Amino acid sequence: xxYRNASLPVKERVQDLLSKMTRAEKIGQLVQxxxxxxxxxxxxxxxxxxxxxxxxxxxxxxxxxxxxxxxDPWTGVTLETGLSPEQGAExxxxxxxxxIEQTRLGIPILFGEECxxxxxxxxxxxxxxxxxxxxxxxxxxxxxxxxxxxxxxxAQGGATTYSPVLDVVRDPRWGRTEENFGxxxxxxxxxxxAAVEGLxxxxxxxxxxxxxxxxxxxxxxxxxxxxxxxxAHIGLRELHEIDLYPFRKAxxxxxxxxxxxxxxxxxxxxxxxxxxxxxxxxxxxxFDGFVITDCGAINMLVNGHNTAATGxxxxxxxxxxxxxxxxxGEMLNKYADSAIEQGWxxxxxxxxxxxxxxxxxxxxxxxxxxxxxSERAKAVIGRTEHKxxxxxxxxxxxxxxxxxxxxxxxxRKLSKLAVIGPNAHAPYHQLGDYTSPQRREQIVTVLxxxxxxxxxxxxxxxxxxxxxxxxxxxxxxxxxxxxxxxxDAIVVVVGGSSARDFGEGSIDLRTGASNVxxxxxxxxxxxxxxxxxxxxxxxxxxxLVQELRKLGKPLVVVYINGRPITEPWIDxxxxxxxxxxxxxxxxxxxxxxxxxxxxNPSGKLSVSIPKEVGQLPVYYHSRRTRGKRxxxxxxxxxxxxxxxxxxxxxxxxxxxxxxxxxxxxxEATVRVQVxxxxxxxxxxxxxxxxxxxxxxxxxxxxxxxxxEKIEIEPGETREVSFVINREQLELVGLDLQPVVEPGAFxxxxxxxxxxxxxxxxxxx
Length: 764
Prior knowledge:
Blueprint: H1 10-19, H2 23-29, E1 31-32, E2 39-41, E3 47-49, H3 51-59, E4 64-66, H4 85-101, E5 110-113, H5 130-136, H6 139-155, E6 160-161, H7 185-200, E7 211-217, H8 236-252, E8 257-260, E9 264-265, E10 268-269, H9 274-284, E11 290-291, H10 297-302, H11 311-321, E12 326-327, H12 330-341, H13 347-363, H14 374-380, H15 384-397, E13 399-403, E14 416-420, H16 446-453, E15 460-464, H17 477-485, E16 489-495, E17 506-507, E18 514-515, H18 541-549, E19 555-560, H19 568-573, E20 576-579, H20 587-595, E21 650-658, E22 661-662, E23 668-676, E24 682-692, E25 703-712, E26 717-724, H21 726-729, E27 731-732, E28 738-739, E29 743-752, E30 755-763
Helix pairs in contact: 1-13, 2-12, 2-13, 4-14, 5-15, 6-7, 6-14, 6-15, 7-8, 11-12, 15-20, 16-20
């Protein structure tokens, strides 16, 4: 059989295999059932495949399985019922072996896993969420993280992942803000390219590579009212310049898969949008992978969008638009055959989709290497080097928003330090959504990190939770005040939670002890499907901070959360504020490192933080014609995009643009001197923005085009240079085609979107 001959070209192997398949077998390759339902764990730790899975294989086969190793409250897989890394690899092998040996053609299964910020399986390293990663402004570091994630995932048999998320955030009330890198398309694109390169490597078939899936394609972050899956009201010009740009760059980097978004754009659901899935993705960009739907998306065409009257019509609309695989597989299983019989689509439409799926399986090397290595899984997953990397990513992603009179870093000579707040010692609260069950010793909370940091010092650490993230229970206030009164300084850790109910019980507010019962308290106020009307702290957290402020002691607020927080009172009254987002399993170490100056904060905001929620949208790259100010306040955010403080100071000098005049195909080099004028070493994120002063269509006041993170010693000056060419200067013109128009451009280089040196570049 030619398709088993690895020396033949992939397309020849695909055609040979396709010619041997029945229609039922073809349809089977396009479905992706839930993997955790396909096996049963036995008492000895091994697994057996279920009868339902065997029947599905007999009926035609299964092309892919979703989340075979996924563990969380949705799957019902717990630490007790789940699989260790080596058991997970063996389980995947058991399923794969049965599929290969008990089917007519022996086509291997593609195992797809969630890896938003680490493989969502028991024992895997939990890295910071993408919003933290965006705040690092360090694509090279993120690429290194993605290499670690890919190694851990492939070691257990996972060959594709549903990340990176390349949505551009317009409204941070959206619960999935934490899953995204930020509000700017260039920053998102750089991170997307880093993810593709890190996850896929140079060879998809390698033991450390998994296929990346770009999602959610597209404008998912532009939803009406910040509601998950709501319509996106956006024109084609803005769609191409903002939302599609990160996807285009990641496709150019070689991404193997794309996932359409749930939402509609101008009345057309992304799942059945041929313009997006075929005209743009394949014809314009040359994408050669396959498209997989989000879970239940085809069904939404019938029940939700109502653009199809029947299942057959919905299936045909999706496949003819450019979909190749369905997550869950329910609609294709039920209606694909009858859709052909009723004339909604042709056999050729089915063949095209199946061929693309099979091609990626060959490119992934699944026919030659279908099985995982359990010994490798045991050695690679959760290794020390990955924990150290998680700590570094968290530290680089933490943003210092305020530091009055040098409150931070703390002196190690503190006698007593109070650590207060619902997120000071809540492991799951700092991990974000898409997290598996965790053993307590795997997670370093802020309290853990500070205790270890000061273990050799004379400093006494006093802890109290004070309150919960949600709810109006003030029973913990007395203990919190009692501890804070005795302290020299106070660290209060507040914010949000994307933790689903892992059955960990709750905290006794009066004693601070963990209270594990059958009735756990759910503090979740962020995550998928958890959208809000406000950005204020929930519960009585603000009241707790206000009570602590009355003590007159140095007060440092640490936010752990999945979306921006708008609390004007804290902005005004806290002595220092750290934004840590969800910093992952090593987050407590990273926060402690920054609080005591072992790490100089270098993170900068990848999303603007408004003064009030009524200012939304407040993203920095809005059009010049943004309208007048509000009666109550202006349009400026509290903390702008690109903003972040350091324990040192930087000065920008001598901006030069050479040549100052170019044609539309030319390029110029922008150089600037950056000096560390403080007393400690630090990292600065140098940002270059372009302002098109006059154009045929309205333009943003400024738009980020290039950036670089540099390390500078105290007293040192470094030159940073950027090349500006067509890509940084073009716009989507009146004919919806990219063009560089002649005229003047201001080039702004500085530390944020609101500061910088300005030079002039002219295009003739």
